[in-house]
Amino acid sequence: MATTSDGVEARGEFVSVDPPRRVEFTWGWRNDDELPPASSRVVVTLTEEDGGTRVVLRHHDLSTDQQRDLHKEGGMLYLERLVSLWPGAAAGTQAAD
Predict the structure, then answer these.
(1) CA gap 84, 69 in Å, rounded
(2) Of these four, 47, 59, 65, 86, which has the most CB atoms within 10 Å of its CB?
(3) pLDDT of residue 31
(4) What is the mean pLDDT of the chain?
(5) Is 6 helix (H, G, I), strand (E, B) or coil?
């Protein structure tokens, strides 16, 4: 469970973990009929690239364009924050359609 700054709870469970390459988990919002817990799936893959690590986050099973756009925006925000934690990390975040 994760809670946003405005008190909204995200819930999910790990589906598979393949260290250090891949993590898959379910995703949804508590008390949200449009995207309830476990109604979507997130896959994060990590691959070595040019002496660093490429992080790819894919969010599956979002049922509307609005959900897709909002989650793309949120995913980009948090990936950029992750990059900022490592000095010298390339801030090469880009959204895939």
Answers:
(1) 23
(2) 59
(3) 86
(4) 86
(5) coil
Residue carrying the six token digits 């599956």: 60
Q: Which amino acid is at 5?
A: S
CA-based nearest residue to 5, from 96, 86, 78: 78
CB 82 within 8 A of CB 55: yes
- Cβ contact 28:10 at 8 Å: yes
Rounded to an integer, what distance in angstroms lies between the CA atom of residue 34 and that of residue 28? 9
Name 59's bridge partners.
Answer: 42
Of the candidates 51, 79, 10, the one whose C-alpha atom is nearest the C-alpha of residue 96 is: 79
Which of 40, 71, 38, 76 lies closest to 56 in space, CA to CA? 76
Distances (CA, A) of 88 to 4, 46, 80, 83: 28, 18, 13, 9
